[in-house]
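Course exercise 7: structure representation. Students receive a sequence record and must write out the corresponding structure in token form. The form below is the worked example handed out in class, using NAD kinase (254 residues). Read each field label carefully; the graders check that inputs and outputs are placed in the correct fields and that the protein name is recorded exactly as given.

STUDENT ID: A-19
EXERCISE PROTEIN: NAD kinase
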Amino acid sequence: MKIAFTASQKPGAKTLMDQFVAIYGNHDAGEADVIVPIGGDGYMLKTLRRYMALIRRGLPVFGINRGTVGFLMNHPGINDLPDRIEQAKEAIVSPLRMDAVAKGGTISELAFNEVSLFRQTQQAAHIRIMVDNKVRLDHLMADGVLVATPAGSTAYNLSAHGPVIPLGADILALTPISAFRPRRWRGALLPNSAKVSLEVLDPERRPVSASADNLEIRNVHRVDVEQDHATKLTLLFDSDHGLDERILREQFST
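STUDENT ANSWER:
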């Protein structure tokens, strides 16, 4: 098995990579059977972006945890790595596509967890929400709002009191962040075919930034979000610790 190892700058990640490489060798990603990033969830997202062309063509990713949470990663055991990879469970995920309109033009990015809008100042954000070109909420006053995939529903979406979505569900979560008006609106569950448009009201006095996972664009006027069904990525997880099981457990955590 040809493995392409890569590691973050987190303490211990480079050291662990050296231990793996000493046993299994290291290959260029273009020649490898699998990419193994070593780090945390943020580094996993960075790796997916870095090797997007190869991963889109079917190169799988098996993450090794050296981060804080490691929800998208596997345990850092060194022994029998090729066997673990061969026996791993596949999770096929499609990212969100974000088209953010700012003063300089439209910027497009992919997000694997969520697309989020945040207020940039002490002023609450004022946002109009449209789904498939129909206004569903004319005026949201909040710190922000986000659209999350099932894989990302246990991340910031859950912290914002959004629902946890099973991995196989064809659903997206639309979740407000600290909503002030309307007070009783807790968000919505949308089919993953939906196109969500978030229009910033009064962007000069109440500036808003948009983030595709950890990539931020400031002073946006409008953000369109929809799932990129043409892009399918294969994440691998230890057979006894699949992503679907992790998401299910989150629904019963206390």
